[in-house]
Design goal:
The protein is α+β, with helices and mostly antiparallel strands. The protein is built from 7 helices and 11 strands. The strands form 3 sheets. It has a 5-stranded mixed β-sheet. Strands 3-10-2-11 form a 4-stranded antiparallel β-sheet, covered by helices on one side.
């Protein structure tokens, strides 16, 4: 994995899974996607969409067997490059250097595989015969996603809507691992090695300090410190009381 410009792609997490068995996703997952207005496609694509709903982190799955040398590059598009997207019309769009793509290694053609943060490309689409999956969970510059989506597509995608509004960089790794675990459980996949995490900026969040008395003031109910700690633990927060 190579990120040419971290200002355009602050973080890129990838996970390789093999022995994947493509099929329908479970009924409970299809129902959850339908309730969110998302059409079920197959277990792999449905898992990426399900985790997007859970975490707010868009993901994308590439057919690894169609990624020469198994190496992805996040880079600016080249003038006149063409990408056939996964839009319903399978529309081919012409790119320019103000746009960002995920592409192959330059020694192996360097062709664009997806429009970063917006939509995948047809050349690495997950099909019924796919057995190896390269999973992406990345973070993209909001203004670039917004500008590119509006220039190339008639309407925003589920992914571009989220990236336009901002997705926390620290969601990428847990979302990728959650999706990988679901693919192991629901698609018979085997995770190969550890996740690769390109995160040069390592964004951090400032701690929020709040006295327990403020909880009482805001909620109108007095909670003991142990009760507050229990809630924060269940929500996955790091904290001290």
């Amino acid at each position: 994995m190579t990120v040419d410009d971290p200002t355009l792609c602050p973080r890129f997490v990838s996970v390789l899974l093999k022995d994947v068995k493509i099929g329908p996703s479970p009924a409970w997952m299809q129902e959850r996607l339908q309730a969110a207005g998302i059409r079920a496609i197959n277990n792999v694509v449905d898992i990426t969409n399900f985790v997007m709903i859970e975490w707010g982190q868009p993901l994308h799955a590439f057919d690894y067997d169609h990624v020469p040398a198994g190496h992805l590059v996040a880079r600016a598009a080249k003038p006149g490059e063409v990408l056939q997207t996964l839009a319903a019309e399978r529309e081919a769009v012409t790119l320019n250097p103000d746009m960002v793509v995920v592409a192959g290694h330059p020694d192996h053609g360097g062709h664009p595989y997806s429009l970063a943060g917006i939509i995948g490309g047809a050349s690495t689409e997950i099909s019924d015969t796919s057995t190896s999956i390269l999973l992406e969970a990345a973070n993209w510059k909001q203004s670039n996603v917004r500008r590119t989506a509006r220039a190339l597509l008639p309407r925003p995608t589920d992914a571009s809507r989220r990236f336009e509004r901002g997705v926390p960089q620290d969601h990428a790794l847990p979302a990728a691992l959650r999706a990988a675990r679901l693919m192991v459980d629901l698609a018979g996949a085997t995770m190969v090695g550890d996740a690769i995490d390109a995160w040069p900026g390592h964004a951090t969040r400032s701690p929020i300090k709040m006295p327990l008395s403020e909880c009482t003031r805001l909620l109108g109910i007095t909670y003991a410190p142990d009760a507050v700690a229990s809630v924060f633990t269940r929500l996955g927060f790091s904290f001290s009381v």
